[in-house]
Design goal:
Elements: E1 2-6, E2 10-16, E3 19-26, H1 28-36, E4 41-48, H2 54-62, E5 70-72, E6 79-85, E7 92-98, H3 111-114, E8 118-121, H4 126-135, E9 141-145, H5 148-153, H6 155-162, E10 167-171, H7 172-179, H8 184-192, E11 198-202, E12 208-212, E13 215-219, H9 233-247, H10 254-271, H11 285-299
Parallel strand pairs: 1-4, 1-8, 2-6, 4-5, 8-9, 9-10, 10-11
Antiparallel strand pairs: 2-3, 6-7, 11-12, 12-13
Helix pairs in contact: 1-9, 4-6, 7-8, 9-10, 10-11
The structure holds adenosine monophosphate.
Length: 310
């Protein structure tokens, strides 16, 4: 199967209580691609400027990500984002967003990218997400991510995009902003009224919930010793989640979705242990499997009999 991802390719600057980086490879489409590359052939679509060079391509090629549809805008500068995390690593403040080549981005998909079986619409302008969705007529599973900005300023366009996808991936504060609902399942089901049959609600360091019209499934975050930099955790989760579904032929049955939650969780947990793409770029399949198995061990229990008092 082929997975196409459309989204930001970036240089990020971050500061966290564990240090910082002035300029590191990032962007939603990059984090997603590296994570999803463990499952299938990934084609990444997004714009870069003259400052994006061999070193950055080498990271993607190191995981065999197909970069043919990365659009090099001559004379342009790559999207730049900077943020700071405080003691509570669940919240971050954006310091700067320089859209640069992203400002006029109009996704141009090659025929191979249009022919993908599985598509991830990373966080970009909802109109562009819908445009890409329409170009990928053959896709059997399409997932979409978004952010507070689009919920605030382009909600109708976002609803139009959501109504054309199979799965929406948002964090809990975005679900609340979108629906006014504080409760995860109730909020997710409100969003699913627009069409999708599944929703993933990311809960930061508390894990993630999968919600379908008549069921739900919960995974904690994999417990790691140190969270150095959470940037890209959500997109790494999405890469593992969507990648796992692609590896199952685009089958979005509840059993596959649950397994996909575990793979997303495992890869995201590696992502946060170092800055940017540093850890996932040298991750191995065996390491992913190790954490998926450990996650299963620490979340399952026997229903032994307990004599409860009246
Ligand atoms: P995550 O931590 O999973 O939410 O993803 C963080 C990544 O999203 C960073 O690598 C940023 O480059 C990228 N990013 C931040 N702001 C935006 C934005 N407005 N549009 C697209 N991508 C963004």
């Amino acid at each position: 199967m082929t997975v196409t991802v459309v989204g930001s390719i970036a240089f990020d600057a971050v500061q966290t209580p564990h240090g910082g980086r002035e300029r590191m490879l990032g962007g939603a489409a990059v984090h997603f691609s590296l994570a999803a590359s463990f499952f299938d052939e990934i084609r990444v679509v997004g714009p870069v400027g003259d400052d994006f060079g061999d070193e950055e391509y080498a990271v993607l090629h190191g995981r065999r990500v197909n970069t043919d549809d990365i659009e090099h805008v001559t004379g342009g500068k790559t999207f730049f984002w900077s943020g700071v995390y405080h003691e509570n690593m669940n919240a971050r403040d954006t310091l700067e967003t320089e859209l640069n080549v992203f400002e006029t981005f109009d996704p141009k998909l090659s025929q191979q990218s249009k022919d993908a079986d599985v598509v991830f619409l990373a966080n970009i302008l909802p109109e562009l997400q819908l445009n890409v969705r329409k170009q990928c007529e053959r896709a059997t599973f399409v997932a979409l991510d978004s952010m507070d900005l689009w919920i605030n300023i382009a909600k109708d366009a976002l609803i139009a995009a959501i109504s054309e996808v199979d799965c929406v991936i948002l964090n809990d504060s975005e679900v609340e902003l979108f629906t006014g609902e504080r409760e995860v399942v109730a909020g997710a089901r409100k969003i699913m009224q627009h069409g999708p049959q599944a929703m993933v609600v990311k809960l930061g360091k508390y894990g993630a919930a999968l919600v379908t019209p008549d069921d739900s499934f919960w995974v904690p975050a994999f417990p790691v010793d140190v969270v150095a930099d959470p940037t890209g955790a959500g997109d790494s989760f999405a890469g593992g989640f969507v990648g796992c579904i692609a590896a199952h032929g685009g089958d979005a049955s509840f059993d596959v979705l649950k397994l996909a939650m575990a793979y997303g969780t495992a890869i995201a947990s590696y992502n946060v242990e170092e800055f940017g793409t540093e850890r996932v770029a040298r991750l191995t399949g065996a390491e992913i499997v190790e954490r998926v198995e450990e996650l299963q061990r620490i979340t399952s229990f026997e229903t032994l009999e307990v004599a409860l008092k009246a």
